[in-house]
Amino acid sequence: xxxxxPEQSVRFxxxxxxxxxxxxxxxxxxxxxAGQFRTADSTxxxxxxxxxxxxxxxxxxxxxxxxxRAARLAIRHWGPAAQASPGQLxxxxxxxxxxxxxxxxxxxxxxxxxxxxxxxxxxCSRITVATLxxxxxxxxxxxxxxxxxxxxDGYANQTVALGTxxxxxxxxxxxxxxxxxxxxxxxxxxxxDDLRPAALPAFVDWLDGVGRHTPRARGPTLxxxxxxxxxxxxxxxxxxxxxxxxxxRGKE
Length: 252
Prior knowledge:
The protein is of the alpha+beta class. The chain is built from 6 helices and 12 strands. It has helices at residues 19-23, 60-78, 86-100, 189-192, 200-211, 215-227, and strands spanning 2-3, 9-16, 30-38, 44-52, 113-121, 124-132, 136-141, 144-147, 172-178, 182-187, 238-245, 250-251.
């Protein structure tokens, strides 16, 4: 019997201010986070979040950062419950985000929110992805890349977000299990809108290569790529977060 080892997973990400915000002397309105913890029954829970504050809202940057904190807190509560549903996770995120921004009108803090959580015990990982609003969640296994929510499910270019009127079914969610190596990528629309669907597998392959760099080199390598983004006329902030479960396994 084999089991995944936490050190055989890789998490990294980067966020850069887009040309439009640099020109206007405005800060980056994206935010991201990644982390890992172990539950009492030795399940390893890893997570990623990327959020994109709506540019038309005066507290978009605060809203995006609050959403990453809310997602982290929600996963801390939700992750130890092995069979908890994605719906329970996103309801926690909605509630905690409103508490995080309670000093302000939530509409002024509106932000998209993309979350990936991976609960691993033994040789099986349960993967949950939840997205609200624009952006892209991509999953790669055995060379096949699929998308969850965001552009792939037709939510692109909609303004639905935390802090805007919406029903809970505006969240696109998916949960599945695997015992195979895989990669997960979350990206804000500054990246997603410039990625043609046909180019997505090659882009995920390139990210897999970045994951094989040393831990200290991964973030700077990704950041340089985002700063040198080759798409003419791009203007938005750009953020990517990646989780890779790699091939080497340890023995129990």
